[in-house]
Please model this.
Amino acid sequence: MKEIVAMLLSLIGNLGFLMYGMKLMSDGVQKSAGEKLQRTLAMMTGNRFVGLLTGMVITMIIQSSGATTVMVVTFVNAGLLTLTQSVGVIFGANIGTTITAWIVSIFGFNFKISTFAVPILGFGYFFSIIKKGRYKNIAEAVMGFALLFIGLSGLSDLFTDPAKFLWLGPVQSLGGWSIILGFVIGIFFTALLHSSSAFSAIVIALAYNGIVNWEFAAALTLGSNIGSTIDAVLAAAGTSTDAKRSALIHVFFNVFGTLLALIFFKPFLTLVTACTPGGINGNIAIRISMLHTVFKALSAAVFLPLVNPLVRLSQVCIKDKPGQKSDKYTLEFHDTLGKESITAYIMTAEKAIADMTDVVTDMFDRIQIGVKHRNKDFVDEHIEVLKQQEDYCDQMHEQIVKYLVNCEKLPVTAKQVSNLSLMTQVVDELENMSDNCFTTSMLLAKSIEKKMKYQQEDMEQVIPYVELARQFLQFIRININKHLDADKLAMATELENSIDQWRKDLKKVARKRLESGADVKAELVFLDIIRQIEKIGDNCFNISELLTQTL
Model:
């Protein structure tokens, strides 16, 4: 009993070293290069092959297919990626995750790197104290690398005596039932650990020390592929329908691929053995890593041409909710990503701000139609829509600000705190702009319904004034969420000055009309319209100044 307890405690301790080392290594890489990687991931095209390569490379860098897949689900939820675009990335992430098994099998057993693990850990720690910023994150990754091999070395030492594990012999001698049992064990323990890489390291250590045979190790490994989908499933909870479908496709990929491997189990293992240097007599740790890679690569080769059918299948399994196309705007804050993926939260907020800018731009385009034509058709076709858009912007304002406040509660950097504050001010300006657009539309409607008369040549002078404001708004729409340099701020300043000058000239026109006996009410409405357009220009300039402060 004492030996069992001691062995169990040693297993838990070394597994803790292994998993914490993997996490620290992944976190360090993500913190040092995570923002660029995540923005690269979100800038996907519809090309499934580019998506596959991107998902593969990013996962190889951050050492976590779970993190990549969770980011994909989040980006689909935010509308940064379409469901179809996400599929290739998910496939690539599954291939990229095999790099961890290769690191473990090559360095963990072929070299006595554990001898140097403690000095590496100490070096990384002291380097993290001396250096800050990106270098500190790299130092954390180095420390994680050392802890990983300390844990792996401990596991290997724990499993060096096969006599202690004789009870596994009968389990592996049940024929086909052994394969099924190993498969189920792989699913269960990987889901429990939330890490297929950690479970693979255990399997490699068991196989390397002769405790489990090749077929049982293969069954455990195949089962771990299904258990690894747990992170994506949890991340999809409470998200949009397409985000849930993206997680489901991740499950499809692993389940269907694993079932195919089980159906053709013997031929599959023969292929893996043939691909391994030394064949059946080669290093079994290398062979298990090869199994990972061959399985993922073959699955991607089979399913990549079937992206569209997989998408349709996910749509059949997860149907659109009735009334999902609602007039209510919601931006839910999901804490499933964790502190390592703060950039994903910020990018979701940026997408929401860009969407709000599009709504305001459409509102102004409708106003421009009213200024040009100023007839009853404008009132009938656009006023109700503008009212709905203004209400929608109010909802966006409330939801986005709430989301940004939640982002500030995360362990964000000083730079990110500053940018989040600026983003909140930008949203405030957009909401004010939507109010000004709606007020302008109501003034136009009033002038039309009251049949207020203006000289044609006077109204023609308003059109270029409105067009100038439209150009300014388009300038904001193009540059929203970007840092404005001095040249672009100069362009914004020129547009603002031009709008101010036009307003002064139009006020003089209105004053002359009043002096010549024009209708006072009509001229006051005219001046109000001119003033509201200028306010919209002011909103644009305020946003321009805020964008120059982004870091």
Remarks:
- The CA atoms of residues 189 and 199 lie 7 Å apart.
- The chain has 22 helices and no strands.
